[in-house]
């Protein structure tokens, strides 16, 4: 066997182990792929994170979307951890991190990015690749534009940096809230925080709904339903309006620094449709582009495909 063949076999086995495909139930888990669940203090907040892989390997920072948490990466982490140091934090107000009230913490994307920036520094992450999905895009692009020297590659999965991706029906009531932060417009968005809306996010656009585990909304919805959490999410819906004005700055970062980028985009997403993926081609020269026949949470249906694409991409980019 040549080196390339050995590499492909290793990646395939790693993917199979992570996604539970044809693996014996009694197969022991590798110490390097074992996921650790940790908490670190950042500005009096407990920031929960999942971590796996050798710390002397290149780091992959996984930034989750709404309304989930690092839980969305539960299978991807061990799939990458044989070769990479993988870290996935929960933002304040999400997952197992602190969720102070809106009176005690200003829930803006600037502040989420600041917490994650301090988190990377607390963990000593000097260089990293970033997986950006949904809310992870405005958090991660703030980091990248501020510290371009720290970012080795970008992996973009249904995360926007162009106006073309946020001009669909989903965004009309959200944009109305940006223009007028009234109770009426805020209350109109509370339907996005219901169990039906959460299921819709996970199941719309998938090829086979039977592949989507109810453990997903079973994890997310109780957290959304915590007292005070609706106000947290409404604050972030409003703050999302701070992101489009920064798009030109992020696009200038792409053009100037040309980070190697992998696009793995669920093309049937009704929130961030494929229209938001194509504009990256305008500004990035070192770009791998994949539209997948699935929905918003592409990892749920196409996690094995995405992990293989990431391993191949990072293998090429981080060994140059």
Automatic annotation (TrEMBL):
Organism domain of life: Bacteria
UniProt keywords, alphabetically: Hydrolase
Record InterPro entries: AB_hydrolase_1, AB_hydrolase_fold, Epox_hydrolase-like, Haloalkane_dehalogenase
GO MF entries: epoxide hydrolase activity
Gene3D superfamilies xref list: alpha/beta hydrolase
Coiled coil ranges: none
Domain AB hydrolase-1: from-to ranges: 58-302
Name by which UniProt lists this protein: Alpha/beta hydrolase fold protein
